[in-house]
Design brief:
By secondary structure, this protein is of the alpha/beta class. The protein contains 10 helices and 17 strands. The protein has 2 domains: about 180 residues, Rossmann fold, CATH 3.40.50.2020; about 190 residues, Rossmann fold (3-Layer(aba) Sandwich), CATH 3.40.50.
Length: about 375
């Protein structure tokens, strides 16, 4: 598990604790002016020890082995033995080094950069488990690459008030869903998909979990005065996500950065909807790629009088020049999770890494035991 060895360059925080499978959501009691911290409880050791894990296996791909190890530690299990290597020509070889016949198998592999290699590795892992007679195969995908390619791009015709789609364009998210299904997966466990419609692309069950409770737990520990807080959506498309986030932060006010995108990975900030003057602005998004959207939004917030700006996201893709933009002084803190591994060379003082291991581990237990997963997110499901 990550500890405090990198504190001077990056802050890595202990994973969220659960009590009976439920994280505590911060709601400001009447008369209080600061956000309460989450209840922290010991790990569910008594529950883990009572579970029958003889048919449960967890295997890790090469994309994020540290997260896989944390998940296994939370569940009190050993990672399964697997041999993954690449031949000189780049082809991927996978061999399971223990029996999975009749087992409930979970393969932890985010399809983060390099997306194509990690996706192909996941497909071959699934195929290996299927050919080894695994009873159930669940692809645990903390970060689902190609999720942004979930529709054809909409173009606005300036001569008339009309939106039309761009022709001859693929919908790669559907293709990837088909590949995972055809490879032999029986179920997918994903974290913070870019859009909910991606779940509909799969012809198998999808358990969609949210990194939101982990981020909320950390923000609550900072004891920010609720009167000073405003939640900001960096674009119009993220308003629903930001509104749900604001409700859990004592129903904080909402602001929206209105921008127009002129191409892939290029964003232009236009104006701000809402009041942030003298406030602590918390920008919420599902991912940060090149950080163009969120950094331009932060600059606008400072221009409008925001006292401090925090960036919160589940997936830290961090394509260049994201690190330069995020460490330029615009942000008081950049809060991410470890769904995608961040290289130590990319750490910077404002960066805080939270772990989703306990969240995913608890979800795996519930899926394995045929228990409810939505109960982990009671307020998240009600707010939609």
């Amino acid at each position: 598990m990550y500890r405090c060895v990198f504190l001077k360059r990056c802050h890595v925080v202990e994973p969220l604790k659960f009590e009976n499978g439920k994280p505590c959501i911060p709601v400001l009691p009447a008369g209080e002016r600061s956000l309460p911290s989450f209840l922290t409880t010991p790990q569910l050791g008594n529950i883990v020890s009572s579970k029958n894990d003889t048919r449960l296996r967890i295997f890790s791909g090469t994309a994020n082995p540290s997260l896989s190890q944390e998940i296994a530690c939370y569940m009190g299990l050993e990672l399964g033995k697997i041999n993954i290597k690449r031949f000189a020509d780049g082809e991927i070889y996978v061999q399971l080094q223990e029996s999975v016949r009749g087992c409930d198998v979970y393969l932890v592999q985010p399809t983060c950069p390099p997306a194509n290699e990690n996706l192909m590795e996941l497909l071959i892992m699934i195929d290996a488990c299927r050919r080894a007679s695994a009873k159930n195969i669940t692809a645990v995908i903390p970060y689902f690459g190609y999720a942004r390619a979930d529709r054809k791009v909409q173009l606005f015709a300036q001569s008339v008030v009309l939106f039309q789609t761009q022709g001859r364009e693929s919908i790669a998210a559907k293709l990837v869903a088909n590949l995972i299904t055809e490879a032999g997966a029986n179920r997918v466990l994903a974290c913070d998909l870019h859009s909910g419609q991606s779940m509909g692309y799969f012809d198998i069950p999808v358990d969609h979990v949210y990194g939101q409770p982990v981020v909320l737990d950390y923000l609550a520990s900072k004891r920010i005065c609720s009167d000073d807080l405003v939640v900001v959506s960096p674009d119009v498309g993220g308003v629903a996500r930001a509104r749900a986030f604001a409700k859990k932060l004592s129903d904080a006010p909402l602001a929206i950065v209105d921008k127009r995108r002129h191409g892939h990975n290029v964003a232009e900030v236009m104006n701000l909807i809402g009041d942030v003057k003298g406030k602590v602005a918390v920008m919420v998004d599902d991912m940060i790629d090149t950080a163009g959207t969120i950094s331009k939004g932060a600059a606008l917030l400072h221009q409008e009088g925001a006292r401090e700006v925090y960036a919160c996201t589940t997936h830290a893709v961090f394509s260049p020049p994201a690190i330069e933009r995020l460490s330029s002084g615009l942000f008081q803190e950049v809060i991410i999770t470890n769904t995608i591994p961040v290289l130590e060379k990319n750490y910077f003082p404002q960066l805080t890494i939270l772990s989703v291991a306990n969240l995913l581990g608890e979800t795996i237990w519930r899926v394995h035991d045929d228990c409810s997963v939505s109960i982990i997110f009671p307020l998240a499901t009600k707010s939609k």
